[in-house]
Design a protein that fits this description.
By secondary structure, the chain is an alpha+beta fold. Helix content is about 15%, strand content about 25%. Strands 2-1-3 form a three-stranded antiparallel sheet.
Length: about 70
């Protein structure tokens, strides 16, 4: 029986471009984004209507030390 696809993004997915935004993950890939969790979920459901996304907020990276 094949393994289930990952819910969380894999290490090859660069989420740094989504800093400060909400991201919906389906099968380990970004399926939707938004300024709110609900907007990201709706975006993912438009792209992948039969799958339930994992919605996470991508934190901003701390500024580098001086």
């Amino acid at each position: 029986m094949p393994d289930k696809p990952p819910l969380e993004p894999g290490p090859e997915v660069d989420l740094s471009v989504y800093e400060g935004r909400w991201v919906a993950i389906v099968r380990g890939l970004v399926a939707g984004t938004g300024d709110t969790a609900e907007a990201a979920r709706r975006s993912a459901k438009r792209n992948r209507p039969r799958e339930e996304p994992l919605v996470i907020r991508v934190r901003c990276a701390p500024p580098p030390p001086d």
